[in-house]
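Sat 14:20. Reprocessing the chain from the morning session after the first attempt stalled halfway. Input below, unchanged.
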Amino acid sequence: MLLETWLAFFAACWVISLSPGAGAIASMSSGLQYGFLRGYWNALGLQLGLAAQIAVIAAGVGAILAASATAFYAIKWFGVIYLVYLAVKQWRALPSNMAEEATVRPIGKPLTLMFRGFLVNVSNPKALVFMLAVLPQFIDPHAPLVHQYLILGVTMIAVDMVVMAGYTGLAAKVLRLLRTPKQQRRMNRTFAGLFVGAAGFLATLHKATA
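Finished this time. Tokens:
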């Protein structure tokens, strides 16, 4: 892969990752609830979902899924339902005791948080179709494909890990300012609304027709 091609893809990855979406909302939600170190497990799950989508595209299955209206809408509505489920959980989340020096936060199981992040990314057909349209633009069909997809996949995941760390850390910092249960409930309900908004946006997606 030419250096110029990789640099162009590297720049594109930053634009894609920084664009607000369900993954960013999930990362901020986890940082808000669990703090950075615990909440970042969600971001690792997001990367597993991203890796799965890249693998699907590299295997050629992505083109089949993109062409199938049934598969597209099945993935889409699963994603909508899951985002609404996360919204309900966020809305019902109990405030933590942040008075004075109290720093106790709810304990989220790492595997549970990883699985949550994985489902957020893997259930987004827009991301799959988008990557199916973008990744081949940086692939040289005359060079070994596996090697190229590995380079692109590692680059995209590395950039996304940095960006999601930023979103998670930002939300974890905000947690320190939320001293009262009322403030925390307001923030939880704000994120619940963002999850519903992401679900609503996903619900409006229609499969592109040739």
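Residues 98-104 have pLDDT under 50 and may be disordered.
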